[in-house]
Amino acid sequence: MKHHIIFNVVFLCFLSFISQSLAEDKKYVGAEACKACHEKEYSNYLNFAKKVKSFESIKKMEKKLTLEEYQACFECHTTGYGKPGGFESEEKTPGLKNAGCEVCHGPGSLHIDGGDPEMIIRDVTLENCNTCHSKDRIEAFDFKPLLFGGAH
Fold first, then answer.
1. Which pLDDT tens digit goes with each residue over 89-110?
2. What are the structural domain ranges in the chain?
3. CATH 3.40.50.720 is right for the domain spanning 2-141
4. pLDDT score, position 133
5. What whole-number distance in Å separates Cα of residue 68 and Cα of residue 56?
6. In the predicted model, what is the mean pLDDT of the chain?
7. The whole model's pTM is what?
8. Total Cβ atoms within 10 A of residue 41
9. How far, rounded to the nearest angstrom, does the alpha carbon of residue 54 sit from its chain's CA centroid?
10. Is residue 57 within 8 Å of residue 137, measured between CB atoms?
11. Rounded distance, CA 56 to CA 77, Å?
């Protein structure tokens, strides 16, 4: 009995380590990286999604905002801002400067490396959109979220 308890404790520690390691390995790769396998979705994103130019909208406002206000815009208008491997600046991470695929689907590195659909958020729901498309922000900017706002 004692051996079973020890084995279970060691096994749970191992699972915890593996899950933590996977979470740390996830990195943002940018929408361009999705194009190779998701050409139709990427094309629709470029041609129809407003978020493909989301960084331009905050650049237009930059002179009217304090640095703190300007950087607060990055949370919704860039990919992965404030998260490990996410947007840092237009110079350091240009591929993440707009709101791309990974805003809704999460960091894509593990999915791209192995092609495993389980390594990315596949079934995006409105709950995923609430970070940016919250009631307060909708009223403040007078826009309405679309479940398929990414144009696919």
1. 999 999 999 999 999 899 999 9
2. 2-141
3. no
4. 79
5. 18
6. 80
7. 0.74
8. 17
9. 14
10. no
11. 9
